[in-house]
Protein 1
Amino acid sequence: MHRYRSHTCGALRESNIGETIRLSGWVHRVRDHGGVLFIDLRDHYGLTQCVVDPDSPAFSLAEKLRSEFVVKMDGKVRRRPDGTDNDDLPTGKVEVYVSEIEVLGPAGDLPLPVFGDQEYPEDIRLKYRFLDLRREKLHQNIMTRVEIIKSMRRRMEGQGFFEFNTPILTASSPEGARDFLVPSRIHPGKFYALPQAPQQYKQLLMMSGFDRYFQIAPCFRDEDPRADRLPGEFYQLDVEMSFVTQEDVFAAMEPVITGVFEEFAKGKPVSKNWRRIPFAEALRKYGSDKPDLRNPIEMQDVSEHFRGSGFKVFARMLEDPKNQVWAIPAPGGGSRAFCDRMNSWAQGEGQPGLGYIMWREGGEGAGPLANNIGPERTAAIRAQIGTKEGDAAFFVAGDPDKFWKFSGLARNKVGEELNLTDKERFELAWIVDFPMYEYNEDDKKVDFSHNPFSMPQGGLDALKGQDPLTIKAFQYDITCNGYEIASGGIRNHVPEAMVKAFEIAGYGEQEVVDRFGGMYRAFQYGAPPHGGMAAGVDRIVMLLCGTTNLREISLFPMNQQAMDLLMGAPSEATTKQLRELHVRVNLPQK
């Protein structure tokens, strides 16, 4: 028999009854039933109930076992007594009568429990992550992640893609976040950067004639952590294709992403016909460029009904042509208590309040707003937005460029509070026609809105003859249930257009050559039209595991302060290390 095990703790079935076997694993818990000890033994594969009674030679040692001891047990498989089957366990019809126990690794007092799924402080969980990962739900999440990545690889290869690995030590790139810099010992005073994404390399692969690339790529960004973005590093399904239009990318990737979701959705419906929503329409209807389409509420511009009305606050705002009034319908929300609650919520979000109209029995509007604008305008609003008796609508006014995010939050809040958002499905969509540029208020200049390497719609002619803030890009996102899970675009592969695009954003031609020399040179020697995307592996796994925190699906994440409490990173470098790297530390004044 093998030194440690003849079977795993998830393998035994009724067909093994009567066999002498050997198991090794962790003591999950010990139960004392009138002097008979029941020990649940756990390993990666499952859990087996082991029984030790006072007649067993192993009883004296069994009495000393505690949770998380690693032990080896020898014994005989037998049928569980009538009425004691556990249908929740694959091994639930059998048990092992133990004849011998060997302690392979004793365990001290646990800083957090492994048995059960109770909440525990996150810093303790991360410091003792090796214990946390033994917990059933987290262990399952990590294994689900493994299977999702396997599924992605299988589906990408089925679509004719090839997996390539790109460099980790590279040059700095303007991806929209700070780079992690790595000082060079061999080249004093110079630095490598960890890749924010393999963007330039994957485009260079297309220049090299490889046609269809993918990679489960590690990406590094020095940005502030939040629940749906891990600090420091994350993984993405990175994709690039040659000789393609935007439609070709959509046709290749929709089956991959839909297939992954269907495979791991645990029976929840997954949208098959993805909607395509222009960026401007997404902001206008949903107040978000990553709308949660499980929520049926669509906002509408109702400015005309308030223009010149008795509600002077809105009427005066609308004298400025850039201002608008948007309505957020609230089906079933026509109670004073709910409307007051939403108004208080808005004030908590830093807003002066949230005007509303309620429609009572008979269809009459009620509330201060309705009283101010009169029954005729109230009825016209109702006809436009389709509310009925017992419904309400909330109103947001001002410059849409400044209030669209708040209106989106209000839409989400109404959907959540009134149980309108269907939590039991996955709604996938493409957001298309992103603006190529935006105005940077801080620097008072035109800047790239998204990916600087995207092809502008209209190409070089648009760059030369159009107001930059009106140019749309062949740039697209995939959204799911309120999260952006992928982003991509058709690339600007024309050297003159690339230089012009960067020039509009304030980069001179020499700066483009200096910073993107590899790609710029490659474009001079026969560049195929190409495009692609990158899907966030972590966010997809998070959604499919039913959690809202990426630390619940990652092996060894950092905490909210970007610290690895398990390994003690970041840590100070020794004087010798700094001297070798020609680096001097200049700490900020306290």
Protein 2
Amino acid sequence: MSMNNCEYLRSKYRTHTCAELRSSDDGKEVRLSGWVHRKRDHGGVVFVDLRDNYGVTQIVFRGEEAALMTDIRVESVLQIEGSVALRDKQLINSKIETGEIEVICRKLEPLSMADILPFQIAEDDKAPEAQRLTYRFLELRREKLHNNILLRSKVIASIREIMQSMGFLEYQTPILTSSSPEGARDFLVPSRFHPGRFFALPQAPQQFKQLLMVSGFDRYFQIAPCFRDEDPRADRSPGEFYQVDIEMSFVEQEDVFKMGEELMYGVFARHSSHAVTKPPFPRIRYDDAISKYGTDKPDLRNPLIIEKVSQLFQDTSFKVFRSELERLGDIFALKLAVDEVPSRKYFDDTIAWFTKLSGQGTAYLIFDGGEIKGSVAKFFSQSEIAALKEKLVIEDRAVVFFAAGSEKKILPYFGRLRVKLGEDFKLIEEGTFRFCWITDYPMYERDETTGEIGFSHNPFSMPQGGMDSLLNKNPLEIYAYQYDIVCNGHELSSGAIRNHDPEIMYKAFEIAGYSKSQVDSKFGGMIKAFRFGAPPHGGMAPGVDRIVMLLAEEHAIRDVIAFPLSQTVEDLLMGAPCEVSERQLREVHIQVVMPKE
């Protein structure tokens, strides 16, 4: 908070915050309130670091106040009155903003006494996660986590400012809505007024934001809560998350890209000193991302690229490669330039890691000056070696990893190997946020278990080529106007140009196995709206939690959420989910049938 805004913080409890006083305040009479962060008893003189939301000030207690402080535990809340004094030069603490001064206490008033703490606040004592989440209000007092939540607030404020500067207005959409097949399980809410029927919490405000476009609002955004019954992982919060939900009318894909780039660049440039990709962000087609990086979330800070080298081994005598090529598989290579050749143990460990991860084998070749060695060196001809050096641009010392098989079986795991090698050999560019767009997603995909055709991404997207593609193309060859924003290996946003034509929508859903009556039942409101004049429209929805996670340089999304669920999908602080009374169940016409053990 700026010094100009500190006037709003004055009250009977404080004349200044614990981050405000400077050497220019020497001799000033002040009143401060906060938590006892640290306490040091020097025999008759007690030093306390007093902490509030804004910072820390050292307080010096002598005489009766020092005696009283002896029995006050850390994290108790105090109000003190005293005078500002300059510290001796050798005692200045440059780590805190108030490090040039201290406050000599002449009056102490305890406001709230703390019990014995379940874990330490000032120091990380490695308390178990379950204990920290049970006492999350204490963990939120820790400096790093506390600052993450403050950063989150500032990021959201910046998002609102940038969106409004581009002509967007914020509108709210319903929380209680209908169930929708959007790729994850819904959270269901039973209806008291309509027995046997349920509301669903929105996985996203998808239909409502499109309806706002049909209603003529042109440019919408919302910091929207979304609810999905998904399994937890490090970069995804189980249960609920927030996104910057955005929709705009009379636009093509490039118009959305321009808006998205201004938003992402603006937020990241404001809240980090790292270098940020300047607009326009690179565009990478989905198929190219998979073939080069093994993922549609590539980390462009990593320079390694996957190469398909099947053509180099059409006449190979290496039986493993030959058998895969005969089965119409492919050969993939990943080149790593090195200053020193890794140890044999490194190769053995990496092969074991890859095999455990994928169930597939991998091999390696070492180019060490003029010497060629490695697990498959004896199987390659001189012409194959020469062709490989030319294809992969190998000039001096390098290692090449190989894998053989179908793209679907090999590339996702080779992508993981690319990440591992980038980390192991410290190839990841530091101090930068590297953005890109992933474009041209397939409209449909085949379920490997059932063999059925289904949507691969957002069912409301416009297929490239419109109705003509749906009528005349193999569904698996149809692309959609769908796109993602990716930064440093994390998907930050999905989006699409929407399908605003009812007949094209019916046909698109028909290919995915939905009848016209099912579409009317699930999406009747939107279909009806489209029949009364719908503008071409599109949008996107960046995830707030992931944006803040990257800016805070955290690896777990729960570290930027004030009150996250645990990995067991429980709120350990509030005791949720919880059992409810029989009366509550009867009111919503629900009977609980527990699973058999």
Protein 3
Amino acid sequence: MDDQQYGDSTIVGPSLVPKLEVVQGDFTGKIYTLKFKTRIGRETDNDIALADPKISRYHCQISFDDGKWLLLDLGSANQTYLNGMSINVPQPLSHEDQIAMGETVFVFRDPMDETDAPFDPSSAIVGGPTPPYELPASTSSTAPETKTSSSGLAWITGGLILILLLAVAGIILWFRGNKDSQQKPAAVPPTEAVALIRTTPLAEANLVLQFEDDFSASDSGWDDAFGKGYTKQYGNSKYHIEITTNNLVVWGLANRNAADFEVEVEATLEDGGEANTYGLIFRYVDQNNYYRFDVSGDGYFLLTKFHNEEWATLVDWTQSDALNQGQATNVLKISAFGPEIIIYANGQELARVSDGDFSQGNFGFFASTFTDSHIWVSFDNLKLWGPEQQEIAIIPTITPTSAPIIAKQQPEIAAATLEVAPQATNTAPVVVVETPSPSASGTEETPVVVESPTTQVEEIPTAVAPVPLPDFVSREQPLARGEQRLPGKIVFPLYDSARQTYDIYRANTDGSDQELLAMEASQPAMNKTGANIAYRSWKADERGLITRVVGETNHWLFSPFFEAASPAFDPGEQFFVFHSREGGETPAIYRTVGAEPEVLRREGAPIQGAMPALTSDGRMVYKGCLDGGTCGLIVSNLDGAFPMQLTINADDTAPSISPDNSTAAFMSNKDGVWEIYTIGLDGQNLQRITNDADGDDGLPVWSPDGQYLAFASNRDGHWAIWVATPTGEQKHQLFDLEASLDGIVQVDVAHSFGWTEEHIVWTP
């Protein structure tokens, strides 16, 4: 049957269209009228949208076909149940059938079973959006009204008795409530000033309950947020964080500032890898300064601090029988008074330390992944107690909104933040512009919401650059259990946008101990010990390629041409190779012979190419073309003999040779964005190492032992150094870069080609 035939028209009088009544879940009692095709799931474009992490984005569908209403599961992860049985094929529905998914249970109400009137298809109307779900033993719905033979007098008598009992109970509750009025905490609205809520001291200290949230109200101040690889949302009187990518931490904060306190939360591992972690963040000053208490699903805990963008371990990974393992609930607690910090699980002390770096700050909870890409944790009953005299101040924030706001950016709002917001059912994307509204005190508060007619909605073009991770999501992680900091150092360029030039830096593989190696320079190369450096100099009075001992000022300008680029050490350290455009726009490969550079030739003609990399057995891999016109990566002897085409995409570039001379890693944009690939130097076994459509990955470099590949990536909206195994596994961020890798040097715009001609180096 074509549901377009009847449109959205309604009928006068009682509708004979079946309905779904929620009998279990957050929206118990809510009723939805079915369309001819009613799709149910977590996404907002469903006909019934359920904010429940246990259901799939598109979970199931109810449709009218050949005179019957049919229930169909749409390949959901956690299945759809009809009267307690999971379904795999379309199943007909009958009046009073139970439909369960996640933590929500519906009852199918069919008026045709309660009346002799025929079903009129034109009575189908559009139902509204909705909530979440799980399978009950029996329905708890209110039964349909039925006639009774009881006399009116019996009803009146029973009613009077009930009213009398309720009055007595009300008097008792009034007296009890008056007595305990100072003891019963109330949820603190996020926009009110915080006062001390409870005056009853705990037995062990003179503390009062100053903040709590049981997450039963979805407007209690924690943001619903959805992004690539993570979800944060209310659901079934809990708060849920789910992550579906590796090496990511996502947190929620109470936005209250506390100094001395005890804080606890009930945290349940719902699903995911047991080596991943979840727990409490406290004394959170900013994204680069806070304490973190981790527990894992396999019974370990960890206490760390992130201080000025560097991790320090306060209590290393320790196993404890106090922790419930697997998909279970752990009550996690922190006691922090002055520098003394004690961590607990399920009422048992785990460890205590003294650390005074952070004396106060925000608090909340988090979930995080390491090499395993999935974790789902729910949080409930967050509470914080503090000294009676302590003030708990609200931290002003701008809470992200998911409501549709405006269709066009207003020209007078110059500093607005532009994003695409999730929309209500069956609406097109609209543009959200959020600007802080000044309060009376001058602080920033809730965003001003501007609306424009829906007829002006415009489609937003796909962004060229990825959107940066928001402040509640980070790649910065302590080391996973059993993980060691990778040995060696990473050398990399950074573009200074103010000076419009590059500088070269060196850091440990975790980003610590960063040092400046060369100013107004880029395209670094190092010898195998890391003692000597070569680079391209952008200094106006000293253009060309330079080499020197790290830390010394004496140097050798081995190519004085400003067109020379991309130097590389001979593995035996007897000469350098590089490419240069001094002979024209098409680059050619050069090498040094003694103190002079000369072009490499094949059969008398210059070898045209760029970005050369050398093996230790006398071969080179470079970006170039062979005589037939096919371009890509070429491998040949250093004298150009025995050339072989490795790849056939003309833009393939930045080759790096494995220490055993067997494999080249390189970057390619053949699928629309830059990604990392590897290929054997025999032309076999092409493998794609990265796959991230929202950003660029490039400039691969092998670790000195050949066990890892480091590369640069802007997949999170900012540049960082990442690492993976040569098969593409265990991908994770090593450290953020403090500036961009991409820029045009203004002293020579014509010969500056941005990040794709840059280098990174991994030295011992």
